[in-house]
Amino acid sequence: MNNNEISRRSVIKGITSSAAILAAVNLGSNKIIAQETKVQSAKLKGRIKQSVSKWCYGKIPLKDFCKSCVEMGIGGVDLVGSGDWPVLKEFGLIGTCTPSHGLPVGFNHKENHEACIKSVRDAIDKTSAAGYPNVICFSGNRNGISEDEGAANCVEGLKKIIGYAEEKNVTLILELLNSKVNHKDYQADHTAWAVDICKKVGSPRMKVLYDIYHMQIMEGDIVRTIKENVEYIGHVHTGGNPGRNEIDETQEINYKAVMLALVEAKYTGWVAHEFVPKRDPLTSLKQAVEICDV
């Protein structure tokens, strides 16, 4: 496992960094402005709502990162815990996807249901109170379980919590990950398998997190898959393949075409950048925003 994956797993398990709301100085009038920082935002077309996963930019202080996000026209930050939400609020950003339980231990084994549901319920409460949209969840690793049994267990477990998500106006998103390179043995590694779970759970609050990088590795055919399954896609992640780095011409996915497909399919959720920059991180992020602003 590489350091990038270790970082992401630690994020998913829950981020509890504290953040105090500080006053900001309005240089134009020398007045103190509490809880709100005035930053000029880039003018984007807005057909794709863009977010970004903070774990990919761990060395940048959160306040500096949020300021840069606003300047680029990014509207939210992905996979940050409630302890960091006051800083997001200060900059007018939202938490676009709340972490809950961990990656390997998920809903595909019945013995995990109680712990997973407790974690998801807590995340739903916090997400709903903040007015944010999504809580992430995971199938977990196979650990010898069959595809059919793992799917049936996921449906059973998710049905126990989906009513609460509906009540709180929060969407549960089951993330698709590759089991070939980064997450060996992870079960939700194909779109059809995860979408079938959503159909059987039978709620508009049960969706998949379609990670373009992961699904390019596992099955390709990204544009067709998006168009055929957009009803069940509640969140999207980006990343260049191979390497999970920049989404520019250095990798194989045509991100402009993929974004246009999302627009054509009338996708209305968030697209969160989740790539690990190899170059200057904020320069790469700004380039990604521009590529996806179709």
What does this protein look like?
This protein has ten helices and ten strands. The strands form two sheets. An eight-stranded parallel beta sheet has the order 5-4-3-10-9-8-7-6. The chain has a two-stranded antiparallel sheet with strand order 1-2. Strand 7, helix 6 and strand 8 form a beta-alpha-beta unit. Helix 4 packs parallel to helix 5, helix 5 packs across helix 6 and helix 8 runs parallel beside helix 9.
Summarize, please:
By secondary structure, the protein is α/β, with parallel strands linked by helices.
User: What is the percentage of strand-forming residues?
Assistant: 5-15%
Mean pLDDT: 90
Task: Please write the CATH class name.
Answer: Alpha Beta
Shape: globular
User: SSE order in H/E notation?
Assistant: HEEEHEHEHEHEHEHHEHEH
* Intertermini distance: 35 Å
Low-pLDDT stretches are 1-6, 13-35
CATH superfamily: Divalent-metal-dependent TIM barrel enzymes
CATH architecture: Alpha-Beta Barrel
From the helix content, strand content and strand pairing, which structural class follows? Answer: alpha/beta
Q: Kindly provide the radius of gyration, computed on alpha-carbon positions and rounded to a whole number of angstroms.
A: 19 Å
Strand order of the largest sheet: 5-4-3-10-9-8-7-6
Fraction of residues in helix? 25-40%
Q: What's the number of extended β-strand segments?
A: 10
Number of helices: 10
User: What profile does the largest beta sheet have?
Assistant: 8 strands, parallel
How many domains? 1
CATH topology: TIM Barrel
